[in-house]
Amino acid sequence: MTQRSHADLVAEQSQSKSATSALAASWRRSMMKHGLDPADRRRPDRLSAAELAKRHEAMAGFLHVAAPQLDQLYNLVGLSGCNVLLTDAHGVVLDQRVSDGDAAQFREWGLWQGADWSEGAQGTNGIGTCLAEGRQVTIHRDEHFRTLNTGMSCMDAPIWGPDGRLLAALDVSSARADQTERYNRLISAQVAQTARTIEAVFFRSSFPQARIVVASDEHGDQAVLLAVDRNDLAVGATRAARRVLGLEREGAIRPRPAADLLGRQDDLGGFDRAERAAVVRALARAEGNVSRAARALGIGRATMYRRMARLSITEKGGRLSRARDSFGAAP
Hints:
The chain is of the alpha+beta class and about 325 residues long. It contains 13 helices and eleven strands. The protein starts with a helix and ends in an 11-residue tail after the last strand.
């Protein structure tokens, strides 16, 4: 496809009222909202070294957590001519992994640290459209808005912060002319999995004093996690958990009993429930040894047995039975 014909097609689809695909909507945003020209040959703008350093500093904790995952992803796709990039929520590339042999091509394209790949700057592209729509996308070759970018395939997934807000985009871009859409799907699946892992690891690191609980087993493709404090109050939730449990969409969440959110049902009142949790934890720490658990709680063995009976906590063979706290800690 020639430069002129691609630009004509993009312009036609961008202005067509009958074009309703997600791609056409992105092209329309690029042209109508952002005022971009698909035939523009300018390379992406890049931040100065000082500006880039400032953004690195602001996201240092996140970048530290993400780095091992970028390494693993690059080990899987790097030999096939791919560039692994991590951006901030504005589409600026903050970190990347690329082979020396492919570096010159990607640098020429502007897929490099400090470059602005927002949809407002470059039109439809993997990074920018992923961030604009808050979803996983693949932009394959001439699906890009600008003719200049049609030589690449880009697979992207969003990463959401502990506050429920969009934090970053994870991108794998390929320079291979023979890159097939089938191969793109394989890479895209790996990108999505890596993005979920980064999101979950960063969520855990953001609540170091809390235990992390899997809030749902029905959303294996999402990080549905709660951070629960020592009082069994949910004090943090991933974006997926917020949506599943009906919590605040963004920002800090109002602390709520984790049992209420997870649908735990029992016949105990609030104080009895708290007492049972304390007894169960003591028994668990004592590996089911009632005498040791009683000493840890500062009560006598007989008192411990009476409380266990009242709270329906049973003992079998010196080990705690299945009547234990029903929250499942995340692996």
